Amino acid sequence: MQYIENRTFDEIKVGDTAEIVRTLKPEDIEIFAVMSGDVNPAHVDAEYAHSDMFHKVIAHGMWGGALISAVLGTELPGPGTIYVDQNLKFRRPVGIGDTVEVRVTVTAKDPARKQITLDCRCTNQDGEVVIEGKAEVIAPTEKVRRPRAVLPEVHLHERGARYRDLLAATHHLPPVRMAVVHPCDDLSLTGALEAASQGMIVPILVGPRDKIEAVAKAAGRSLDGIEIVDAAHSHAAAERAVALVREGKVAVLMKGKLHTDELMAPVVDRDTGLRTERRMSHIFALDVPHYPKPLFITDAAINIFPDLDTKRDIVQNAIDLAHALGIPRPKVAVLSAVETVYPKIPSTVEAAALCKMLDRGQLTGGLIDGPLAFDNAVSKAAAEAKGIHSEVAGDADILVVPDLEAGNMIAKQLVYLAGAEAAGIVLGARVPIVLTSRADGVMSRLASCAMAQLYTAHRAKGGS
């Protein structure tokens, strides 16, 4: 066990020194900004920083000041030290990658007050002084030796960062005409209008005109130039929106304030719906903290107990979406409770069959492995511990779940326990369908619109 020990006033002599060395990393700046609330763009905005006087991102000045405090509180004098005064002069900026040596030197002692004065100096890897000053502290009079505290790990996650990448990928694309079905609450209307303001969609609002206008007024949003197709209620709005697709007037549907089955009923109608030769399926796109890339889960909203034929379509729909989003060879993990084929667990047999379908060309465009348990689908360490050697294991892009219940639970656990953001889309119909939860925020709705726009553009270019 490591210990931390102080030097008492009587032990300290003029000329005593202590130092620590730190190399500035981007996460140091981010953590300091989160802790202090100081989001000066010189520290956190690389584009601005390159145009500023130092032409690079620099540390907050008090990052160096905090290092001086760390030396005083842990080394000299150490535990029991009480700060009295500190003055600092900032001579040079500290940039990412700079290594700073922080040294304090005792210059005077005051026996009557048990105070010591220390010269404080921070120098960079070139020997240049970046901070200098003087500290006055009350030194401890009793010896302290304690186990060194084990600090918690700090993991930084920028919420919605991967969704912002999605939005950025749409900037060069023309907007798609989207029927927004029954947008009669603030979130669904605001999400659609925000997507329109960012040039992703041309919204056609389908629902009761008076309700839509009342929601817009309450939200302080203008509907100038926005087309509204009046429909008496949610069922009628869904039917009219599907008709707009069949008439070639819109290229995407988006769910507003209505139940999923209300929207999907006219979509799946055999005579007047939007069926194709492929089964429709829902794909969650999750931005999960600590997972290095977007994670797709399918199907957690449409097909309750899919058979093998349906799972083939579920997998192909997800692969096609990944292609549209710029993932050329997505890695598909077919999930079960175990990673071996076990006849008493049908999902393991179907997973093996899907892998063979890829070998025979019945599925195309990705890598598929299964059955895989959840842990060895997303964790290299778990896969290696179980002796699984696979390009997919531990690095999956797409998780194919055994049934809707399993998928819904996995997705919601990631959202509510792991802090994931969730967007969603339905493929397999004539047009993509943005199928968001009523609890989804504006960013999730924007990300779902971005996926629909990217998929529509990909298909228009001849993509699958």
Structural notes for this entry:
With 464 residues, the chain is α/β, with parallel strands linked by helices. The protein folds into two domains: 3-147, Hotdog Thioesterase (Thiol Ester Dehydrase, Chain A), CATH 3.10.129.10; 161-460, 3-Layer(aba) Sandwich (Isopropylmalate Dehydrogenase), CATH 3.40.718. The chain is built from 15 helices and 18 strands. It has helices at 26-36, 41-44, 46-51, 61-74, 161-169, 186-197, 209-219, 234-246, 260-267, 308-324, 346-359, 374-378, 380-385, 404-416, 442-460; strands spanning 3-5, 17-23, 82-90, 99-110, 115-123, 129-138, 145-147, 176-181, 201-207, 227-230, 252-255, 281-287, 295-298, 331-335, 367-372, 398-400, 421-427, 433-434. Helix 10 (308-324) packs across helix 15 (442-460). It is elongated.
Number of helices: 15
Helicity, as a percent range: 25-40%
- The CATH architecture name of the largest domain reads 3-Layer(aba) Sandwich
CATH-defined topology of the largest domain: Isopropylmalate Dehydrogenase
Strand content: 15-25%
Low-confidence region ranges: none
* Mean pLDDT, all residues: 94
Overall number of strands: 18
Distance between the termini: 59 Å
Number of domains: 2
Q: What's the Cα radius of gyration? A: 30 Å
Any idea what the CATH superfamily of the largest domain is called? Isopropylmalate Dehydrogenase
Provide the CATH top-level class of the largest domain. Answer: Alpha Beta
Largest sheet: 11 strands, mixed
The coarse silhouette is elongated
Structural class: alpha/beta
